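Input/output pair, single chain:
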Amino acid sequence: MHLSFADFPLADAPAPDLHIAPLPDDGLAARVQHRLDHLTKPLGSLGRLETLALRLALIVGRETPRLHDPQLVVFAADHGLAAQGVSAYPSDVTWQMVDNFLAGGAAVSVLARQHGLSLTVADCGVCHDFGPGRPGGVDGTRYADLKLARGTADSSQGPAMTRGLAVQAMAQGAALVRRLPGNVLLLGEMGIGNTSAASLLMSRLTGQPLTDCVGRGTGLDDAGLARKLGVLTQVLQRHAGAVEPLDALAAFGGLEIATLAGAVLQAAAERRVVVVDGFITTAGVAVAAALAPAVLQRCVFAHASAESGHARWLAHLGAEPLLDLGLRLGEGSGAALAWPLLESACRVLAEMASFASAGVSTASA
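Output:
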């Protein structure tokens, strides 16, 4: 299926709503916890699966949440900063991987098929012409043409994009989510150079030293990592005045991170469960949360990636990831792998018998 640019006209795409209230409780947490405590199992014996079940119930607003029509979106764009040699791969890999997603050959494509996840590839600013009427991919994979520019500018020379363009990208992300069914949004990304943008955003948004934020990305060797750190240090200094979240986003990029941030804001406003993948998707969520802190209540963090700054960023956000598999692929692969845990948590709440209903004796005092 092809979603054309006309499906997401800029003139009709309002800016995302930043007035996202904290999730109401009204005793729901206590009722869900009571339910969990009286299922046929030792108290707390399902560990963090119970914590996950409680979170999902609060997001959806039901004692027995039901997750339906999960949507995995891979946000793709190019980065002008890649010209400074901050990645082990050339920029052409971005568009080549978009084609690979649509052909069904990427890891996230395989995992989406395995777990029944609807997959959309959103072209937010890939420096490649895919052609008019670009068809969707195999297995129902959709291509959404949200291209606002052919990548961002080189942030070592000036801002990656204007603040206005960043806001437009966010509006496009919100518009996309409004058109997708379901109550779960799983986040993925693709863009050569985007670990650099994410590292810069992490340092600026958290105040942590850049050395604690920069990793090897797609697999830089020691010399490449040193070069990357040197380039990013200069970029961070060049944009010392870009302190507010939107200013930092405009200064460092990228278009896929901005679009993703808008999608997260819209999903949070609709009380969709937001499943966060790795380092770059965390950057988009962090921007959204800096603008509307209650966003984090709607998020489930799938995994701690092998990118060196990710664990620190998760800790800063107070997030506890479900998995730690040493992943550093991106694409939404970790979000897809975590998806069965969300399904299991919901099934436990909905389908397990209680001690009373099963006629099972409870533990003695």
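The longest strand covers residues 118-125. The chain has two domains: 2-14+68-343, 28-66+348-358.
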